[in-house]
């Protein structure tokens, strides 16, 4: 167990501030709200908090469109509130990871406002501008949020690149002055005492500046081949690491890596020159067809378990993995991988067992510790997400009905993850005293923190037991990962081992019964059913020390 560092041992709790806790009755979660819940966060047994973006933003894409990297979104509070939050976390021994969005800015950022003014503006080159081709966009790149990724600007008659929404123009990292600005803003937050950075779509910061047209209709393939892993990626990351990150002690970096593959992931993770970790989407994109998020395809348990093996093998060489089963961009983990009706408790706790017994730093999304589930939009107009709104616009062009589209959005849309946190069974779930910016999931009266706090068998209390178990047995953090072959593909089983210390984890992804041998003399450390049994019950999860 050499090479011990805090971020390998940390369990990270992800907070979507808009939906966590409102302190002043305007219906929007805020920093004072988070401050009021710090003891709750600490009680979970986690070590760090990752905050989704809290910077000034027109909020076209949930704050991922930043108009000022140096100030706090007024709805969320002030810089003073931020310092208070940071101090409050540190007092409790918790670290803070900030989310920096550096692949693009808001179109309302002063850089873009300038850049738009004329072809000769000094900020022109901070973004990607191109003339059209025969009256059309410069190439056929599709945007993540539907439509073409180039937008015509009437004033100068050129197009700018926006891989995400039209209000998120891509920043041009080829420009040295822009890169200096980026380094400066990172220093600003690190100087304030932030412990780590999550770098949004870091895989896309280096563009193929000849902008070759994509020749595939498969969106995720386009991400892999055209948007990610560009020619200067390693150089840009190395510059960030050596000129900025290394100036501060013990700072952790985790990149978000849509489009990375096991073959190129390690390019990001050089111990001296790279990031510490990168989120891959092996399992998250598994059920997406060529059309991406709103084009679901079936997935199998074999595909699912293979992802963990492939990626553990990758990071076993160098680097370090990160484990997550949901976040603010995807469906709720229990609705997606578990059974959120008949076996809601069992499958939630099974997924928690998986998350906290894998090699790699676990990231848990707010609400998953109480088994929050997907919500149901009744009309597309109820969606608060630009991806869903735009997806519907595109779907209509293909002749889809609203009901058809809603079934897709309710399966995989981002609104599912973004409903307000369910603190208690009151009208607005204890999230706000005012009117919430987004409807709560109606199941808040059944699924909430208050009820689960007092129930010893709750998902919440199981989560706490799992975090302390992981801490008590460092082999669950550092030990090797070895999948066990099983006859029943609904049984996901593996060993974690270091030297003579060995653990067996068995996770039964099914509503039926099954069996799996437990070696004699094995000691059961935890399980999501009260007693041991010779058979495997629906969604049973166990950890044994061998
Ligand atoms: O969710 C996805 C698939 O549709 C991902 O591809 C996701 O859009 C992608 O990983 C980028 O996500 C990040 O950057 C976006 C922002 O909307 C997401 O919330 C953020 O996590 C643009 O900044
Ligand atoms: Ca508020």
Question: How would you characterize the overall build of this protein?
Answer:
The protein is an alpha/beta fold and about 550 residues long. About 30% of the residues lie in helices and about 15% in strands. It binds 6-O-alpha-D-glucopyranosyl-D-fructose (ISL) and calcium ion. Calcium ion binds next to loops.
Question: Layout of helices and strands, plus pairs?
Answer:
Elements: H1 6-9, E1 12-15, H2 31-36, H3 38-43, E2 48-51, E3 55-56, E4 68-72, H4 79-91, E5 95-100, H5 110-117, E6 129-130, E7 150-153, E8 158-161, H6 176-191, E9 196-199, H7 219-227, H8 233-243, E10 252-256, E11 277-279, E12 288-289, E13 292-296, H9 301-317, E14 322-323, H10 333-337, H11 344-355, E15 361-365, H12 386-397, H13 402-412, H14 415-418, H15 449-454, H16 459-472, H17 475-478, E16 480-484, E17 491-498, E18 501-508, E19 514-515, E20 523-527, E21 535-536, E22 541-545
Parallel strand pairs: 1-2, 1-15, 2-5, 5-9, 9-10, 10-11, 14-15
Antiparallel strand pairs: 3-4, 6-8, 7-8, 12-13, 16-17, 17-18, 18-22, 19-21, 20-22
């Amino acid at each position: 167990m050499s090479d011990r560092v805090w971020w390998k041992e940390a369990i990270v709790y992800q907070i979507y501030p808009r939906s966590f806790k409102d302190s002043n009755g305007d219906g929007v979660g805020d920093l004072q709200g988070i401050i009021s819940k710090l003891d709750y966060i600490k009680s979970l047994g986690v070590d760090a908090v990752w905050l989704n973006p809290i910077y000034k933003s027109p909020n076209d894409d949930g704050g991922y469109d930043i108009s000022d990297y140096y100030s706090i979104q007024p709805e969320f509070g002030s810089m003073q509130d931020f310092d208070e939050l940071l101090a409050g976390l540190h007092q409790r021994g918790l670290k803070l990871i900030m989310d920096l969005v550096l692949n693009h800015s808001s179109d309302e950022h002063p850089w873009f406002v300038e850049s738009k003014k004329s072809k000769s503006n000094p900020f022109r080159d901070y973004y990607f501008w191109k003339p059209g081709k025969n009256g059309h966009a410069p190439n056929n790149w599709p945007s993540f949020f539907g439509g073409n990724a180039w937008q015509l600007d009437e004033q100068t008659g050129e197009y700018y690149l926006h891989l995400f929404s039209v209000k998120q123009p891509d920043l041009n990292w080829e420009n040295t002055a822009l890169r200096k600005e980026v380094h400066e803003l990172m220093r600003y937050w690190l100087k304030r005492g932030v412990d780590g950075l999550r770098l949004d779509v870091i895989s896309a910061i280096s563009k193929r500046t000849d902008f070759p047209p994509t020749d595939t209709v498969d969106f995720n393939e386009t991400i892999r081949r055209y948007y990610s892993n560009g020619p200067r990626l390693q150089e840009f990351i190395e510059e960030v690491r050596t000129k900025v990150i290394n100036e501060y002690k013990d700072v952790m970096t985790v990149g978000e890596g849509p489009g990375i593959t096991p073959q190129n992931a390690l390019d990001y993770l050089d111990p001296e020159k790279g990031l510490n970790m990168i989120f891959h989407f092996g399992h998250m994109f598994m059920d997406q067809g060529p059309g991406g998020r709103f084009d679901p395809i079936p997935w199998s348990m074999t595909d699912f378990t293979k992802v963990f093996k492939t990626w553990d093998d990758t990071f076993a060489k160098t680097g370090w993995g990160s484990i997550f089963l949901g976040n603010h961009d995807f469906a709720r983990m229990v609705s997606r991988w578990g059974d959120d009706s008949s076996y809601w408790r069992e499958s939630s706790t099974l997924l928690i067992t998986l998350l906290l017994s894998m090699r790699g730093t676990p990231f848990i999304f707010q609400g998953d510790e109480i088994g929050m589930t997907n919500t149901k939009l009744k009309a597309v107009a109820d969606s608060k997400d630009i991806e869903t709104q735009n997806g519907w616009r595109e779907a209509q062009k293909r002749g889809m009905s609203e009901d058809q589209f809603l079934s897709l959005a309710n399966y995989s849309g981002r609104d599912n993850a973004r409903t307000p946190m369910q603190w208690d069974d009151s009208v607005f779930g204890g999230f706000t005293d005012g009117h919430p910016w987004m409807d709560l999931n109606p199941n808040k009266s059944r699924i909430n923190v208050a009820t689960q706090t007092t129930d010893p068998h709750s998902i919440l209390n199981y989560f706490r037991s799992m975090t302390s178990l992981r801490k008590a047995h460092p082999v669950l953090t550092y030990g090797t990962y070895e999948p066990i072959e099983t006859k029943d593909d609904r049984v996901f089983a593996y060993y974690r081992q270091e030297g003579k210390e060995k653990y067996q984890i068995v996770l039964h992804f099914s509503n039926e019964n099954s069996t799996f041998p437990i070696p004699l003399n094995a000691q059961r450390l935890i399980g999501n059913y009260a007693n041991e049994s010779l058979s495997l019950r629906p969604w049973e999860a166990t950890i044994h020390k061998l």
